[in-house]
Model the fold of this input.
Amino acid sequence: MGGHHHHHHHHDLPERGDSRYGEIRRVTLIGSALDLTLGVLKILFGWMANSQALIADGVHSLSDLATDFMVLFAAKHGSKEADEDHPYGHGRFETVATVALGSALILVAAGIAWDAVDRLFHPEGLLQPGLWALAIAVFSVFSKEWIFHYTMRVARKLNSNMLKANAWHSRTDAISSVVVVIGVGGTMAGLEYLDAIAAVLVGVMVAKIGWDLVWQSLHELVDTALDPERVEVIKKEILSVGGVRELHLLRTRRMGGEALVDVHVLVDPKLSVSEGHYIGEKVRRRLIREVDEVADVMVHIDPEDDEQMAPSLHLPNRASVEGWLHEQWQGLKIASSICRLTLHYLDGKIEVELCLPAEAMPSSDEERREIDRLTGVAEKMEEIRKIEIFFNSAQ
Done:
């Protein structure tokens, strides 16, 4: 993790959503321009050359246009900032879109296979393909394969499953053109079954990709944790923060290309609230900086391991404790000079710290007895483990 990385992250935080949306939009718009051109060309030439296969292929290109618009729509909404209705942001819009795109891929795969098998029963549709039809199919293969690689590159960079799904949609267009070319070539060479076999294999492969994308996204929608090795990395980073003794209840989940983390962190029980908070903020910042996909962290500070220690919720609150103590201390002059009373709720009991001014330090036996009475009342109340006194000279 070089210094460059830190810098880049801080730079990125405000417009993270926007730049991501910009990149998705650019790559998808280029793709949709191509889809439109190819679709129109294929249908036009298919109609002129009287090739069913080419017309079907053109319809496929136009159907890719629909998935392009879906991606643009989901990216636009997914990049919006958090608001009242979606306090965690809109990252899951992309996830839902991926489920839809993946399901569409499975249908497309079935379509490619079905189409070729259908051609076997009507071979006459394939016999006069004409050179134009082949030329356009070949052009389609190269351009769509190029769009596939371009989209995949952006998808990996942005960690976007939605773009991966759309990349595969582009590729299926190339694949179905290849199947048409194989079919035409096969028929010319007298192997009528070639494209059916090719199409079924391709169909299975594409369906598998679609299923994987759907499966991953469904996991994200039901808040599945990050994979174990990422969780280990997160654990190590948290434990390396100064002041963190232990951690438990580490929970992670995905949100679009990002991860959210919740964790309980164990600190020295006598720390001040502000130092505990400081350690919590350190943990949060470290994870966001050092672990790429982590976008937000919720840290809960624990003074003791609440899985093992006795709970403290049944104990009286500060107002009751103070009321009870002052009742016990009636008639003690020294009680009125207490400058601060600190309560530690630990292991099912309360420890009280009293801060007294330096002048109150006992010099006579009588004053020592007063101090003993001050701390001695702890024995009368089972919830109080002990009362300690500190003298403060810096008044």
Q: What stands out?
A: Residues 95 and 217 are 6 Å apart (CA to CA). The chain has eleven helices and six strands. The beta strands are 246-255, 258-266, 294-302, 340-346, 349-357, 384-392. Confidence is low (pLDDT under 50) at residues 1-15.
